[in-house]
Each structure stands twice: as C-alpha cells, then as structure tokens.
Design goal:
The structure is a single chain. The model has no long low-confidence stretch (mean pLDDT 92). The protein starts with 6 loop residues before the first helix and ends in a 7-residue tail after the last strand. A five-stranded mixed β-sheet has the order 2-1-3-5-4. The longest helix has 27 residues, at 324-350. It is 59% helix and 8% strand. The protein has two domains: 7-348, no CATH class; 370-498. With 505 residues, it is of the alpha/beta class.
Length: 505
C-alpha cells in the first residue's frame, strides 16, 4: 500500500507521544500502588511458569524492565506498562500511515492517548494489559499485512504475537476468533493451506507453560476464570449496564461516541474493504462476548477493552477523511476530557478532603472511598516503624487473611522492615500466596505474628484467627490523614502462639 508521508504530522505525533509519556511517568512517580498492582509485584518477586490468576507474561515484563527487580520502586515496576504504551504510539502512527497516511497516523496517536484505558489503565498501572497492549497491536498489524499480501510469513508473525499475548492474558485468543471468522467468511481457500495450521500450532505452542502449570496445580487458573465468567441461571441486567457504562468510561465517552459514528459511516470509509472487515472481526467478538457474559456474571470493563484497538484505528481513518476543522473539534474534545479526568483523578487520590462514606467509626471509615486503594500505604509504614520503636513485642512474622491488603502490607510494610508475611486462608482468599507461603516457610506452631487492618476493608483478627492464635492483643488504632483530615484508620494487632488449627498456610 502506498504511504502518504507528511513530516508535519509525524512531528505532531511525536510531540503527543512525548507529552503522554511525561504525564504517565509523573503519575507513576507520584501514585502508590493499587490492589492489583502490588499483587502483581509478587509475580515478579516469585516467578513461576504460570500463576493462579494469569499467565506469566506480566512477571517476565516486570523483571525485564526492572533488571530482575534490581530497581524496585513504583516507577521502575510501572515501566512494564509505561514503555509499551509509549512504543504503542509509534506503532499506531506507522500502522495508520501504512493504511491511510500521516494525517490518520497523527489522529490515531491523539485518539489512542485520549482513552483512559490505553493511556492510564494499561499505560501506567501494572496489570497484564500493559505488555499485552503492544503484543495485541503487533498481532493486528501483521494480520492486516497478511490480509493484504496473503504472504504466509505475516500470518505466522501474527500467530507468534498472539501466542506471546496469550502468555500475558488469555483474552488474546479472541484475535484468533477474529482471524478465523475472516477466513471462514472471506478467505475460505486458506483452509487448504498448511501455513494456516502452522500458525495455529505456533500459538498453541505458547500455551504449553500454561497447560503444564495448570496440570500440576489441579487446573486452578482455569477453574478460577470459569467461575468468574461462567453462565448462571439468573439474569442480571445491573451487571450488564455496569459493563456497558464501564466500557464508555474506560475508553473515554467521547471516543465511544466517535466510534459509534465511525461504524455508522463505515461503508463510506475510503480504504480497503477487506481491511475494514478484518478490523471489525478483530474487535467485535471480544466486546460482545463480555457484554453477553455480563448478563449472567459480574465482569470488568478492561476485559473487553483491547477489542477497542481496531475501532480506534477505524475512528482515526474516519476523522482523516473529514474536514480539518471538524476533526480538530473531535481531537480537542477527546484530549480535554482525558486531561480533566487525569487531573481530577490525581486530585481525588492525593488531596480529596473527605471520604464519601457516611461511616466514621474506627472500623469503617473510608469504606466506600476507592481512592484509598492508592493512598496511605507509606504513611502506614511510617506509623508501624515508629510504633516498633516503642514496643517490647518482637516477631518477624506477619499474617494476613486475603490477597488484597496482604500484598500492600507485604510491599510497603514487610519488605522495608525485613518481615515475612504469610497469608492464612482458603485458596480463593489468598490466591498466589498459597505457593508463596511454602517458599517463605510458612508460620510455625508457637510463633507470634503481627496483623494489620485498615478501616476501609476492615478484618477483625479476633474473629478470623480466634481458633489459630492463643491470644490476640490490639496494639493501637492510628489515623491516616490526607490534607489534614483523617480518611481511614490503621489497626495493629499482636497475635500470640500460633496453633495451625485449620491447616491453611
């Protein structure tokens, strides 16, 4: 395909990429880890062939960008999302330049970085979607190159990147659904070509670590995800509308409207008809599958969000065919809303004066304040360190009940103070900590342990661990302040003489 190159649009695209990097890097430096992020840090600290929740791709990416955790900070660990998202800007530009021209490439970069999901959720925070995004886009690029040229090499490369993406998140297999549907509907002669089956085999080969790990661990990961998205007898439209609203919010509501307009006008787009077909088939299966699943089970909007990548490409092509003044209004609106969300989000997490919770007691303050997922952990460590200077109680063990809060305590309190955290509970409660407990040696009978609780997700050890420790002694309740106002309470307990009555370590 002929490339329409314009240096002005390249320079503008480069400027947007650099501005986006500066914004995202600043957020990574200033924000503490959220629940999922700090849990995924454990993936890198304790690598394995696969994990309870996800395959091993994110673990490998974190170890790569932190030099095997030599650099162990929020910013360094988040490079596994920041740098792929930065590379994606160039990838989007060159893909669209190839499809339509430099103007479309520039528009695509602006649109891509105006999405909350692609720019922040998958572009700053440590979740599998960070490294997944680059692999997903590379697979799309080579699928389109294969569709145009029919060269087997491009299909093989697409299959290779789908395989790597699947090693990061199972959702990447939706890409093969899209390619498969395209072959069945428009290129069924491909069904007779060995290169198709070689490509499928390459992707399947990537599944071996996942299958081997699951076969050695009672198929835990598959059972976990089946329970999350399986069909039930009850229909829950509240889940459906939450997923639908979440897709609007995560992808920038203005962008979703633009995508809707693009799909309405898609027949008039002046570029390859088969390209349009391929992009739609690489997009819609994931989006509609999770919308359907949400009728029966709660889903998360970022599960379907990679399905919007091809739609971003189509939206950029649509705008490039409109008058410059019309396109400019869309781009300014997208960027403005994105920046407002980022500024408000940062303000809400770091400065917001009060919790939206009506509860103000020691065990419930902050209960409905999601900003506290990313605030107060370093303050908790300071409180505990000061407390340790005043107490005669000494133990190197900490126990926790669930994987969330356990991972925060692990990273922000235990690691800097050379303490060992052991999660006591069922597999569904502690997830990857079941394996980590064994590596850390568990907790022995007769040992004492610290226990930490936060009022946002309060767990009472006097109830949860009453049959596992001989004595549970509250040590204090400490306020965590934000901008001069208490937003939650940090509880410290000392648990004496572990009995190991439930066998869970």
């Amino acid at each position: 395909m002929e490339i329409n190159y314009n240096k002005k649009y390249y320079r503008l695209a480069l400027l947007v990429i650099l501005i986006s990097f500066a914004i995202r890097a600043s957020l990574a430096l200033l924000l503490e880890f959220g629940n999922d992020e700090v849990y995924y840090w454990l993936y890198a600290k304790y690598p394995a062939m696969s994990f309870f929740d996800h395959p091993a791709g994110l673990s490998m990416a974190i170890r790569l960008f932190t030099f095997d955790l030599y650099f162990d900070s929020e910013f360094a660990i988040r490079l596994a999302s920041i740098l792929p998202a930065t590379f994606n800007g160039f990838l989007i530009y060159y893909l669209l330049k190839w499809l339509k021209g430099s103007k479309a490439g520039f528009y695509g970069v602006v649109i891509y970085y105006s999405s909350i999901y692609t720019s922040i959720i998958a572009g700053v925070f440590i979740i599998p979607d960070g490294p997944l995004s680059t692999l997903w886009l590379l697979a799309i690029m080579f699928a389109l190159r294969w569709e145009e040229s029919q060269k087997a090499l491009f299909l093989i490369l697409a299959a290779f990147f789908i395989g790597l993406a699947t090693l990061t998140k199972y959702h990447a297999l939706f890409l093969w659904i899209g390619i498969g549907l395209y072959i069945i509907f428009y290129q069924n002669k491909q069904l007779k070509k060995p290169s198709l089956y070689l490509s499928i085999g390459i992707t399947l080969l990537s599944l071996l670590p996942i299958l081997i790990w699951n076969s050695m661990n009672d198929w835990q990961s598959f059972a976990f995800h089946e329970n999350r998205v399986g069909i039930t007898n009850s229909i829950r439209f509240d889940y459906f509308f939450r997923e639908l609203f979440g897709q609007f919010l995560y992808n920038n509501p203005i962008l979703v409207v633009l995508i809707g307009l693009t799909l309405w006008k898609i027949r008039s787009l002046n570029f390859g008809r088969n390209h349009k077909r391929m992009l739609l088939l690489l997009s819609l299966p994931a989006i509609f599958t999770f919308l359907l699943a949400s009728v029966f089970k709660p889903t998360l909007p970022h599960w379907s969000a990679p399905g919007y990548y091809p739609l971003i490409i189509l939206a950029a092509i649509f705008l490039s065919e409109q008058a410059n003044s019309y396109a400019k209004k869309w781009l300014i609106s997208l960027a403005t809303l994105f920046l407002l969300v980022v500024v408000f989000g940062f303000y809400y997490i770091q400065i917001w004066l009060s919790s939206p919770s009506a509860k103000t007691d020691f065990q419930n303050l902050g209960k409905n304040d999601p900003s506290l997922d990313m605030y107060g952990w370093k303050k908790s460590e300071e409180i505990f360190k000061n407390f340790m200077d005043t107490t005669s109680f000494k133990t190197s063990k900490v126990v926790a009940k669930k994987w969330f809060n356990a991972a925060h305590a692990d990273y922000y309190i235990c690691q800097p103070n050379n303490l060992t955290l052991i999660a006591l509970g069922s597999l569904n409660d502690i997830h990857e900590y079941r394996r980590i407990n064994e590596i850390r040696g568990g907790i022995n009978e007769g040992e004492d342990a610290w226990f930490f609780a936060w009022s946002r997700h309060f767990t009472n050890p006097q109830i949860e661990f009453s049959d596992q420790f001989e004595n549970i002694v509250p040590q204090g309740v400490f306020p965590i302040e934000r901008n001069g106002k208490t937003v939650q309470y940090f509880h410290i307990y000392y648990l004496e003489n572990y009995q190991n009555n439930d066998g869970h370590q």
